[in-house]
Amino acid sequence: MRIVVVGAGLGGVAAAVGLHRTGHEVTLFERAAELREAGTGIVVMPNGLRALDTLGLAESLRGHDMRAPQGGLRDRLGRPLLVSDLDRALQVVGTPAMIDRTELHRALRAPLPAGLVRTATSVERLEPDSTGVTVISEGEPVARADAVVAADGIGSRLRAQLFPGHLGLRRTGRMDLRGMLPRPPGMAPDLLVSQLVDRRTGAMFGLFPVGEDRLYWFTDSLLDGPPPGADEGRRQMLSLTADWHPLVPALIEATSPADIYVDPIARLAEPLPSFAVGRIALLGDAAHAMPPDLGQGSSQAFEDAAALTRHLTGGEAADVARRFLAYDAERRPSANRIMRAAARQSRLTSQTGVTAWLRDMLLRAVPARLTTRRLAALWQA
Length: 381
Ligand SMILES: Cc1cc2nc3c(=O)[nH]c(=O)nc-3n(C[C@H](O)[C@H](O)[C@H](O)COP(=O)(O)OP(=O)(O)OC[C@H]3O[C@@H](n4cnc5c(N)ncnc54)[C@H](O)[C@@H]3O)c2cc1C
Prior knowledge:
Elements: E1 2-6, H1 10-21, E2 25-29, E3 41-44, H2 46-54, E4 71-75, E5 80-84, H3 86-93, E6 97-100, H4 101-109, E7 117-118, E8 125-128, E9 133-137, E10 140-145, E11 147-150, H5 157-162, E12 169-182, E13 194-198, E14 203-210, E15 214-222, H6 230-240, H7 247-253, E16 260-268, E17 276-277, E18 280-282, H8 285-288, H9 297-312, H10 320-349, H11 353-365, H12 368-380
Parallel strand pairs: 1-2, 1-11, 2-7, 4-13, 11-18
Antiparallel strand pairs: 3-6, 4-5, 8-9, 9-10, 12-15, 12-16, 13-14, 14-15, 17-18
Helix pairs in contact: 1-4, 1-9, 2-9, 3-12, 9-10
């Protein structure tokens, strides 16, 4: 079949590889002038790794296992609030991978023949009819396809075209800063794979190892007005975390603004009624944009890509719509469940005042055994 994938982010690239490898004639459109994924680290959960494995792509993540003795939620001084036994969770569900985003994207797209990718092409709309879909860019048809996969990310224009009555994105009123830097020599592993929360401000700081010699950190805090630039965002976070565990401001300070990314956080205001409309299917953030709090965004996109590939394998142009409905039935319930869980997690960590004080009291009382089980369930997704 002739299949067009719109958007060469992590999800679109994984889908294009799966569909190409199963014998379809794939064209991948990307609006950016070059294929690349910018910025920092990304955790790929065991469910995402399994999906990549079925696409023959897990090799790219070998050697990036995220190992740490303990993880969990801590207060701003680094004292445990909710501790999980990571080793035990890893035994149950497998090990997540923590990898540089740019490296991950490069490895995922490596199997794609160059001729299949069309960069600098922004798809503005799709025109479906009874025999296929015409893909329009800058007012002109650029392709004709039997099936289209819309993987155009959180701000998906194609989602808005398919579901004009949908409420679209909702800002959560928070922003995240992300940074990556060399691991300081001799740094103790105590805070790795931990998230520190401050109940006075609802701000959060997370820290993860990327390989042996780099660290990835992120912050989550209130966004009041338009998002700041990296310089200003860094200054704000330094001021918010000045009296936290000393490693936190030290790591933010040691990261150059050029290596810091600022994202205002948004999610779908309501779940989509379907991930497929006729010959068009949605994938990744286009289908289920969620706050990053569970680190499941890319893993869900990889699960979509694996499911789409499976449902389209051996398919013919005449039965695309039926196969896409099967994809929707498989993926929508679980992706939406994770989207809701991510929104809950975001609310839990961003509480302030008395609610946050109560949260911390309750969290301290939860036995590590239960947290570990919950963590394993989320990683299994
Ligand atoms: C702060 C932060 C931290 C995160 N951390 C994690 C994490 O640790 N683990 C994790 O799994 N997830 C994480 N996520 C989420 C993860 O980044 C996303 O879920 C994932 O990248 C989505 O991939 P995608 O392919 O669906 O969309 P995108 O990566 O957004 O790709 C969409 C692509 O489509 C292109 N495009 C858009 N419109 C058009 C058009 N009209 N025509 C052609 N091309 C178009 C874009 O240029 C882009 O290349 C995080 C997100 C944030 C904001």
